[in-house]
Fold:
Amino acid sequence: MASDTEQTGGDSGLSKAVWYYISVGVLWIGLLFTGVAFERLGLTTSYLTGLLPGEVNTLKSQIAEYESMNQNLTHERDQAVKTSDTRELELSKLRRVVQELEAEIDTLKAAPAATSTPAAS
Structure:
């Protein structure tokens, strides 16, 4: 009889310890899922702003600065591309004009030679 009560007392203590660790694990998992849900819903932003106002405001100002720098770089890049395209267009026009002038110079060089040859005969 005494051995039966010792076994149930020992089993009861082990059972209580197991159930304690299971319940603590379930509570931590529930807390984790609650935190994930709050984060996904965007509910933690106001808490973080209230707890860490200096850090959040610093990060917001850095983000704004980086966004303005990115916009400036994008604008400068677009302007450089437009300028490059304009210069390429002007260069192609000037090359065409040079080709036309060279062709005209060649015809003018050939024309006096052709007109002077019959006059000499």
Notes: The chain has three helices and no strands. The chain has a mean pLDDT of 84. Residues 15 and 64 are 57 Å apart (CA to CA). The helical segments are 2-41, 44-51, 53-120.
